[in-house]
Design a protein that fits this description.
Blueprint (H helix, E strand, L loop, with lengths): L15 E4 L4 E4 L5 E4 L13 H7 L24 H11 L2 H19 L4 H16 L8 H16 L5 H7 L4 H14 L13 H8 L3 H14 L2 H4 L4 H15 L8 H8 L3 H14 L2 E4 L13 E4 L1
Antiparallel strand pairs: 1-2, 2-3, 4-5
Helix pairs in contact: 3-4, 3-5, 4-5, 5-7, 9-11, 11-12, 11-13, 12-13
Length: 306
C-alpha cells in the first residue's frame, strides 16, 4: 500500500480499505478502486501461532560488536552443535581468532564485575578501534582488555577501580596501569577526574549504612569542590573519608571502624585517616567534646559543618 494515499480521489473519504486477496486498494464509501496489483512485502510463509512463527523466521539477533563476526553469520539450525562450532573455528583466520578471544575475555571480566551490556559493547568497539590502529601486536590481550574496560567504566561514570579490575583479570595491577596510560596516549582519550561521589552509594551499601549517611557523605564531597582531585587524591580515599566523617563523627550511631571502611574502599587506614583530617580542616568542621561511648566505640565527636 502506498502510504501517501490517505483519502479517496473521487469522494474525498478517508475510509480506505486494503484487500490482500485481490491485491487492491479501494474506497469503502464510493467503491472506486484506487490501486491494484499491490505488492505484498510480508513473508511468503504463514504461521498460525507463535511457535510456528519462531521456527520459520530467518532473521537472527541484532548486530553486536561483542561477537567477532558482529552476529551477521547465517544460522544453520539442523547441524549439530559440535559441527557448527568446528566449522566456525575452521572458517576463522588468526586475526578473527584473536578478536574472538579478546571479546570473550571482555565478557568474562564484565560478568565478574557485574557491568551492564552497554559497557561491554563500548569496550568491544574500543578494542576494534585499537586493532585498526595496530596497537594490539606485540602486547598482551589480557592487559589491554583490562585497561580498556577501566577506560570505558570511567567514560560511562561507572565506579570501578583498577584494583577491582585487576582482581578479575589474569594480569597484575602494574601491567594494567601501564597499558591504561599507553591507550590514553595512542588513542588520544581524555578522561575527566573520577568523581568520588560515584563511589559513595556502593561503599555505603557494602557497609550496610543508611541512605541518610550516603546523602550527607555526598554533600561533604560536593562542598569540597574537587580540591582532593586537584591534589591528586584517589577518589576512593576521598569517598571513604567522607563516609567515615558522617558515620563516626556526626553522632548518627552507625559506627564503622577505620579498617572496615578502608577494606571496602580498597585503601589503607592511614590514608583514610589523613584524608578525613584534611577534609575536616579544609571544610572547617568543629568538634564538640565527646559524649559517652557506644558499642565498638571508645571516642566520638559531634561534627557540625559551618
Amino acid at each position: 500500500m502506498d502510504e501517501r494515499i490517505r483519502k479517496c480521489p473521487e469522494c474525498g473519504s478517508k475510509n480506505i480499505i486494503t484487500d490482500p486477496k485481490h491485491a487492491e486498494l479501494y474506497c469503502a464509501d464510493c467503491g472506486v478502486v484506487i490501486a491494484e496489483s499491490i505488492v505484498d512485502l510480508g513473508p511468503e510463509w504463514r504461521a498460525y501461532d507463535a511457535e510456528q512463527a519462531s521456527k520459520k523466521v530467518r532473521t537472527g539477533p541484532p548486530m553486536s560488536y561483542r561477537i567477532h563476526n558482529k552476529g551477521l553469520s547465517t544460522p544453520m539450525p539442523k547441524l549439530p552443535m559440535r559441527t557448527k562450532r568446528l566449522r566456525g573455528i575452521i572458517s576463522m583466520d588468526s586475526s578473527e581468532k584473536t578478536l574472538a578471544l579478546a571479546l570473550g575475555e571482555i565478557d568474562r571480566m564484565a560478568s565478574a564485575l557485574k557491568l551492564p551490556n552497554d559497557i561491554r559493547e563500548a569496550t568491544s568497539v574500543l578494542y576494534r578501534k585499537a586493532v585498526k590502529q595496530n596497537l594490539i601486536k606485540g602486547r598482551s590481550i589480557e592487559e589491554l582488555v583490562s585497561a580498556m574496560l577501566y577506560v570505558t567504566c570511567r567514560q560511562f561514570g561507572v565506579p570501578r577501580t583498577l584494583k577491582e579490575i585487576a582482581k578479575v583479570s589474569r594480569m597484575p595491577l602494574k601491567k594494567i596501569r601501564r597499558a591504561y596510560l599507553f591507550l590514553l596516549k595512542k588513542l588520544e582519550i581524555k578522561l575527566a577526574p573520577a568523581d568520588p561521589a560515584l563511589y559513595v552509594p556502593r561503599f555505603c551499601s557494602e557497609l550496610g549504612l543508611s541512605d541518610a549517611i550516603r546523602e550527607r557523605a555526598i554533600e561533604i564531597i560536593h562542598k569540597d569542590k574537587g580540591t582532593g582531585a586537584a591534589k591528586g587524591w584517589s577518589p576512593t580515599g576521598t569517598a571513604a573519608a567522607a563516609i567515615y566523617i558522617v558515620a563516626n563523627l556526626s553522632g548518627t550511631g552507625e559506627y564503622r571502624d577505620e579498617k572496615e571502611i578502608a577494606k571496602v574502599a580498597g585503601t589503607t587506614p592511614i590514608t583514610l585517616r589523613n584524608r578525613y583530617k584534611e577534609l575536616e580542616k579544609r571544610l572547617k568542621l568543629n568538634t564538640v567534646p565527646p559524649y559517652p561511648c557506644q558499642e565498638k566505640r571508645k571516642k566520638s565527636f559531634v561534627m557540625a559543618i559551618i
